[in-house]
Amino acid sequence: MLRGRFAKSLAILATIASHGGSNALKLVGRTSGVCLSYTESIAVRLRGGGFIKGKRGHHGGYTLVNGSREMPMVQVICCLEGVEGDEDLPAEIAALLSFLEEITLDQYLDRLWAIRAHRDQAKKVA
Fold first, then answer.
1. How far apart are CA 78 and CA 31, in angstroms?
2. SS3 category, 72
3. What is the mean pLDDT of residues 42-49?
């Protein structure tokens, strides 16, 4: 099961996406259950990949860049893993990621939130 670095990176991205407005990294890390230093390092990668933008100041924080919701998940994963494209990955991983070329960040987030809502509902019933 994916519970390590990769899952934490996706949790950070989902937290930034879910809040709409500017998100302070301290709050993003706390909400995602990830330490601040790791949250900062992931924010640097996501900003460099063009997925998020930062704003300084009292009401500053991070938001998704316009259009990033339409980016394929394979681009998100390559950004988070620090590779330029799937040619930098082992063939086994590249083959798996090829399935994610048609899935956008927006579709991933919709599915993620649906699964979270379903699990929250199941906990209430149990």
1. 24
2. strand
3. 90
How far is it, in rounded angstroms, from Cα 73 to Cα 76?
A: 5
Percent of the chain with pLDDT strictly greater than 90: 8
φ and ψ of 120, to 5 deg: -65, -40
Q: Is the pLDDT of residue 81 over 60?
A: yes
The predicted model scores a pTM of 0.78
Phi, psi of 54 (to 5 degrees): -110, 150
- Is there a contact between 13 and 76 (Cβ–Cβ < 8 Å)? yes
> What is the longest distance spanned by two Cα atoms in the chain?
46
Q: Name the residue type at position 81.
A: E
